[in-house]
Amino acid sequence: MPLTMQFARNHLPLARLDNPTVALRSPPITVTLTSPPILDSSLCRELWETAQQVRGNEIKVVIDLRATVSIHHSGYLLLQMLQESVAKERAELVLLHCPAHLKKALRARGFESYFTLL
Fold first, then answer.
1. Which CATH number applies to 29-99: 3.30.750.24, 3.30.559.30, 1.20.1260.10, 3.40.50.720?
2. Residue 23's pLDDT is what?
């Protein structure tokens, strides 16, 4: 088992469905992820589970960056993998409460083309 998966399993889950009862009855599903201070590979399990929920559903993925101060290379890779995994689905990807310095870094890497940066 990769080290990143072990690390993710040792932490409380960060993903949650806003309203699971409504989500099961009708689309769209909204999944909210709260990022830790450093966005890195520790979110791999939560992003993988989110990508699995997308299959055949209309989904909105909101990643709250309010507490995030930096994004490591592995964090950018995870965001890219999330985008690629939902590219064929009806998905909206939002990075919420994105600090100015992170918006600048995300824009420099082209993330604004598939994520809404708020």
1. 3.30.750.24
2. 45
